[in-house]
Amino acid sequence: MPELELDLTVNGRRITRHVDPSYRLLDLLRDDLALTGTKEGCGAGECGTCSVFVDGKLFKSCLMPASKAQGTTIETIEGLSRPGELTPVQRAFHKTGASQCGYCIPGMVMAATSALRENPAAGIEEIKERMGGNICRCTGYTKIFEAVEIARDVIAGTLPETALNPELTKTSYIGHNTRRLDAPSKVSGRLKYAGDMEMQGMLHMQVLRSPHAHARISRIDTSKAEALPGVHCVITCDDVPGEDGFGVFVHDQPIMARGKVRHVGEAVAAVAADTVRIAREATKLIAVEYEPLPGLYDPEEALRPGAPVIHDYAADNVVKHIPLRKGDIETGFAAAELIIEERFSTQQVEHAYLEPEAGIAYVDHDDVVTVISPSQNITHHRHMLSTIIDKPINKVRFIMSPVGGGFGGKEDMIYQGMLALSAMKSGRPVRLVFTREESIMASAKRHPSRTSYRMGLTKEGRITAVEFSMLSDGGAYGMSSEGVMRKAAILSCGPYEVENIKVDTTVVYTNNTPSGAFRTFGGMQAQFATESMMDMAAEKLGLDPFEIRRRNMMKAGSRTHTQQTLNSASIDRVLEAAETASRWEAGPPNVRGANRSDLDGPDTRQPCTLGARFNEARHQIEKAKVAS
Amino acid sequence: MKRKMRGRGVAASWYGIARTATIDRAGAWAELDDGGTAKVLTGVTEIGEGILTLLSQVAAEELGVKPEQVTIGDNDTARSPEAAHAGATRQTYMIGNSVALACREAKARLFDEIAQAWEVPVEDLRSFDGFLWAESTNKRITMEEAVALCKKRGVVPVGSGSFTAHGTGLDPVDGHGSPWQAYVFGTQVAEVEVDTITGEVQVLGIWAAHDVGRAINPRGVEGQIEGGVVQGLGQALMEDYQTSEGHPVTHGFAKYILPTSLDVPQINSVIVEDPDPLSPLGAKGIGEPSLIPTAPAVMNAIYDAIGARIRDLPATPERVLAALHEKRRADAQTA
Ligand code: FES
Ligand code: FES
Asked: Fewest beta carbons less than 10 Å away: which of A56, A182, A575, B142?
């Protein structure tokens, strides 16, 4: 393909480059100029991690063809300040703790810088709107807003520069707001995530994924792919030298599909080649013959007799069932003066960490198979990989690269095995970086749940019995399902002491995208149901929602749902703290929103009508111009 | 009913700290290094939550140096001790405590040598923020000098620590067992505005009170609460991963909707400290628990505003309108 010649100015330097005409500005910056502070979170203009200035205007560099950058002046995160220095915006991010995983942060700093360049007097509402194109999955945005406001005031001179200094301590570092040690590397874009790393002689991997939800694989022919110039190796399950299988609780997932595929997007084969493009071409040359099998897409169907079987070892499709029994619910319901029965459901949720999965593997001079990746569980991963590649533990090494958001989603070893195998087969370092679409289809989600709930209470609001049953869709592989069900069961009935309970949580296999670990590990799904029930009961009994919770809450000496005796329980304190802080007006939860006196306080934000704040800001600027 | 209706709701929650229904363990090594700096090695750390900073604060406090003088080498199964995984709200509790224990051992080595050199009782020695001194004497040196003196006496001040949390498994029949040794509790209040024509819900305020045991870095705790609340809000109102016959339908961020800066309520965090009696630091954790009460608090608030109960997440505008329609139909029947 003919190369494109480009002349442009990047961070103050004139640059001439010959590039692939399919390049985006983002590729030019990252791959050719090694400016990896600009990140690729989605490649589709939706996340803002790739934000740069083009001729002074904020742009998403993933959306701009490199050819369009001809003759422009580009400024990236690396160009905002000299090495070792930080701008007031960056220092303010450091000060407030605005960076967590840091993956969104270079883009956020660019967007914040742009907002303050466009309007140095921007109010918080305008700042929010101007930064609305940048997603952060970690921080809840709050500390970012705080940082931008401080930076604005320091730049304007209405706050002294010392506002950016660290807080001092005289007595202790415990309880001290020590600034994040990793913030300077994150706000300046210096921190290298796995996808930013390069090694000498490094190859690029692409993965061939299943287009079927459930199918038998009768044949895989890799010969055409192997013959493509630039391809170093193609791997399938046949390249696994040891005992194949990984998973957090049950090792039911092969490194690549073995005999059949169980969900759309499952890895079937992988190619390591000189470039990403050659590797991608080669995956298209791999011939796979599938015989589609009947699929299961609903957890209730999975339990029906005669349902298709997803894993031979689990003929009933049940991954795990956790029962809890305490007291006697018949007695408990007999003593109840009010019985409420309800059903609840929660959806499958994507982690949406902004850093897509990425990693590099190599075999070192001592024959140690090494994998660098944002793995949340390097200890367990090395155990599993050592069995899979049949090497002693000290010949397997996992290094955890900076994690651009995990939330449980990077606990599963869904690609590190492929990297290791291809590094072993090719003798070269191999890197794989997922696209956003790949990340979404191949990684685990939060377990969706369906819960039937029966709760008995006395007139005074004391819970006498709970019958709780949750069914969850674990998808194609076990991953963390067992643990998620266990935690859902243990926490099910909430922070309340209940004498009589019958709790069952069950997770089944289907041919949906697997469910796995996700922040709260089942605790959220279960307690959503319980906390909804508490309010429904409070309404029926005419009780304030805090009051009904107090009447049932655990105390020191309480026996939990698993019959553990608690030494202490701070639920009384957190209830009181939330009640006081929110200036809660007591009363039953009987749709009294229209008459409450505790609404719309200074500790709430104003509702937003998009664009209104811009108009208001413009109006103010116009007014100021007229006045001056 | 007016077009825009407001309401408030509350939800409480609880959570266990560290791995569930099993024994949990983590290890760390520490060394007081030249120049009064320190090295700490442990097997797993940062996934964005701020644990690196927290560990450097713990090491600084235990050793008597400054957090920025602590180097944390980590995350390498071939070079650092086992600390297992970054999850289960276990990092502050498991790794924080193992680092504290490792540092105590390293400091004890140093203090033994200094006490002998100065001929003072070891119990009288203190160190903080780069200085070491003996109480009720005028003996005071920098940590740099202290480490040099220790090494001149032939001793490298190193230490190791291992921390255990004694969870037990659950009985397979009735589930009895002690899954965790430390529990945290939380309560959140949500204030919402519901547009009864479009069904859109805006969360305007969250008051989040969480017990964290002991807040080692209060700003970091707030960051975890704010992040958890906004993920909870996403699950409550918009996020919905969907498949059709196993094929992902929401395969990019154009289809999979995430909370942005415009969706964020004012978040008012209240940190409650009920120290853990079973560990050196007393700190417990906050990573996961902060997410739990948000969705039910928001659903209870929606009910308070419009009298429609959302039982199926997320409460998208379509679902809110459907629930409102259902309520109006039911109200008309009873009227
Ligand atoms: S907006 Fe460009 S990578 Fe997401
Ligand atoms: S800090 Fe924003 S995505 Fe992690």
From this structure: A56
- Of A254, A601, A202, A150, residue with least CA distance to A433: A202
C-alpha distance from residue B105 to each of A412, A542, B127, B147, B162 (Å): 35, 58, 14, 14, 11
Strands B201-211 and B266-272: parallel
Question: Measured between alpha carbons, how far is A163 from A169 in angstroms, rounded to an integer?
Answer: 16
pLDDT digits (tens, 9 = 90+) for A477-507: 999 999 999 999 999 999 999 999 999 999 9
Asked whether A197 and A360 are in contact (CB, 8 A), the reply is: yes
Q: A325 at the B interface (CB within 8 A)? A: yes
Alpha helix stretches (DSSP H) within B153-306: 218-237, 294-306
Instruction: Point out which residues pair with B131 in neighbouring strands.
Output: B128, B142
- Domains of chain A plus CATH, in order, are 4-167+182-187 (3.10.20.30), 203-293+352-435 (3.90.1170.50)
Q: Based on C-alpha coordinates, what's the Rg of chain A?
A: 28
Percentage of chain A exceeding pLDDT 70: 97
Residue B82 appears among annotated catalytic residues: no
**Nearest protein CA to atom 4 of ligand 2, as residue:** A101
Question: What integer pLDDT is reported at residue A612 of this predicted model?
Answer: 53
What whole-number distance in Å separates Cα of residue A122 and Cα of residue A134?
17
Q: Which domains, and CATH codes, for chain B?
A: 4-17+182-334 (3.30.365.10), 24-164 (3.30.365.10)
Dump strand ranges (E) for chain B.
4-16, 23-33, 37-42, 70-74, 125-128, 131-134, 140-142, 158-166, 183-195, 201-211, 243-244, 247-248, 266-272
Interface of A with B in 548-587 (CB under 8 A): 549, 553-554, 561-564, 566-571, 573-575, 577-579, 581-582, 584
Residues in chain B closer than 8 A to A263 (CB atoms)? 246
Q: Residues of A350-379 as b/e, b for ≥16 C-beta within 10 angstroms? A: bbbbbbbbbbbbbbeeeeebbbbbbbbbbb
**Can you say whether residue B108 is alpha, beta or left, with left for phi > 0 and alpha for psi between -120 and 50 degrees?**
alpha
Atom of ligand 2 nearest to the CA of A101: 4
User: Would you say A118 and B245 are in contact if contact means Cβ atoms under 8 Å apart?
Assistant: no
| Cα distances (Å, whole numbers) of residue A32 to A15, A36, A73, B307 | 11, 10, 16, 58
pLDDT at residue B333 tops 60: yes
- Catalytic residue of the set B113, B119, B288, B326: B288
Question: Could A323 and B291 be called an inter-chain contact, meaning their C-beta atoms sit closer than 8 Å?
Answer: no
Distance of CA A539 to the CA centre of its chain: 36
Q: What is the DSSP letter of A30?
A: I
Identity at A252, one-letter amino acid code: D
Closest CB to A604: pick one of B243, B260, B266: B266
Quote the ipTM score: 0.98
Q: Please report the DSSP string for B136-161 in residue order.
A: TSS-EEEHHHHHHHHHHTT---EEEE
Report the pLDDT averaged over residues B232-248: 98
